[in-house]
Structures are given as structure tokens and as C-alpha cells.
Amino acid sequence: METYQEQSEPVRLQSLVEHLGDLRAVLIRSAVAVVIAFFASFHYADRIIAFLKAPLLSALPEHSRKLYYMGLTEQLYCYMKVSLFAALAFSFPFLLTQLWIFIAPALKKNEKRLVVPFIVASISAFILGFFCAYRWGLPYVFQFLLSFSPTPDEVPLIRLSDYLTLVLQLLLGTALLFEIPVLLSLLGKLGIINAALLKHYRPQAYVGLAILAAVLTPTPDAFSMILALIPLFFLYELSVFCVQWVASENGGVTK
Asked: Is the dihedral of CA 235, 237, 240, 241 positive or negative?
């Protein structure tokens, strides 16, 4: 018995060390990818900032389409902030792949088949969320905020760093919110949750989404919060449908 314990204990320790080594390798590769993407994005930061400014400039009156920075270092700070955001966005597929590489050894053979579909779905949802926020979300937000200055003698003095912070928050937040159906579908496919559970806790989920909408909405009015809630409710109900669909694919029964 003692011999068995002496032999089995080093095996478990070696397995733990191997997992820590795998985690270290994944973190190093991910950090290198983000750093490379950061420097590449910094080289094109002026074009990225121009892309991010376009929704606001189109909403401003033609005579006041300007953004301001208040110090010598603020422009450099904006470049670095935008470059980091772009680096995380561009390296998102690689980071997601590295995450799957780390957890793949713990998955069963049939669960490993979910890797490619999940990565493709996650990337597609991220891009779709970014596009929806940029194409429809930002123009509405800016038009609504600028409507509070209706007279020609009131001109907004918009600081570049504040504007970029708001835009990046809205774009990244929306893109990540679009990952909710993908994540819940994966959990449903793995049998961790089911559609009946999501339906049972729907009231609590709606309350949580309302709090989230209040945090993400840049204006304190109830109308903007309601408009933010509509896509959140849609994403939750889409999650319920997707979880129910993957359960039927598995041959399961949902209520």
C-alpha cells in the first residue's frame, strides 16, 4: 500500500506541474500576440481614431466638426488607448484559440468537436456586436446627446480622450454582450444548463439585464435605458432558443 502511494503521488504532482506549464505557455503566447498587435495598431492609430470619430463628426453641425485635446501628452495617451483596444480586438480570435488549447485536455472526445464551431460562432458574434454598435448604436447616441444643444450659440467642446473612452466602452461592451448566446449555448451543449433553467430564472435575468443597461447607457434618461434593454432582452431570448436547439440536437428534452 505504501509503495502504491509513493508511486501515485509523484504522478499527480507531475500532472499539476504540466498543467501549470501549459497555462504559462498559453499566457506567454497570448501576451506576445497582444504586444505585436499593439505595435501594429499604434502604427495605424491615426486611421483607427479617424474611423472611431466618423459617427460623431457626421452628427455634428458642419461648422463645429472638431475634437479637442487639453495637453501635450493627451494625444499620445489617446493613441495608446486606441491601440490597446484594437490589439485586444484583433487578437481576440487567437486568444480564444489559446483558451481552447488550454482546456482541451480536460474535455471528452465528443466535447472537443465543439472547439471549431464555438470559435467561429464567438468571432462572428463579436464582429456582429461591434458592427451593430458602430452602425446603429453610436449614431443614435450622438444624435440624442447633441439634441440638448438646439440653439446655434451653443457649441459642444468635446474632448478627444473623453469621446474615445465612451466609444470604446460602447463598442467593446456591445461586442461582448453578443457573446451571451454563444456562451450559454456552449454550456447547454455541455449539459451544464438547459432551457428550462433559463426560463425559470427569466425574471431575475431581466432584472440583472436592466441593471446592466443602466450601467452601460451613457445617458441617465429612462428612454435610452429602455432602448438599451430591447437588444439585451432579445439576446437573452435568443440564448433560450439556442440552448433549447442544442438540447434537441443532443436528443435531450426541454420544457
From this structure: negative
